[in-house]
Amino acid sequence: MAISTDMILSVIGLMVMAGFAVFSSYRASAPRDDMRPKLLPWRLIMIVSAFVAILFFVHLVNILGYETGPGKGLLGRF
């Protein structure tokens, strides 16, 4: 099986989004010394980047040949 450009870009996107989710998780849990509010909503950024990483993973699974979607699962359509 040949490695396509779509696969390379999907792997890169998956790694970037997973790394960004880990970084934003670290930033969300870091203690604050002063009483100023956080400027960015790190928990929301973490959830969104993890969701996009899951979408990249599903895209990789589709590239590798397994069909996902309604009616394609092991138990049929629910």
Explain this structure to me?
- It is a single chain.
- The chain is mainly α.
- The protein has a domain at 11-27 and 40-68.
- 60% of the residues lie in helices and 0% in strands.
- The longest helix is centred in the N-terminal third of the chain and has 25 residues, at 5-29.
- The relative contact order is 0.15.
- The model has no long low-confidence stretch (mean pLDDT 87).
List the main descriptive attributes of the protein structure presented here.
78 residues; mainly alpha; 60% helix
Number of helices: 2
**Oligomeric composition of the shown chains:** single chain
Integer average pLDDT: 87
Low-pLDDT runs of 5+ residues are: none
How do the SSEs run, as a string of H and E? Answer: HH
CA radius of gyration: 17 Å
Described by strand count, sense and barrel closure, the largest sheet is: none
- Sum up the overall morphology in one term: elongated
What's the layout of helices and strands?
Layout: H1 5-29, H2 42-63
Helix pairs in contact: 1-2
Write a short abstract of this structure.
The chain is an all-alpha fold and about 80 residues long.
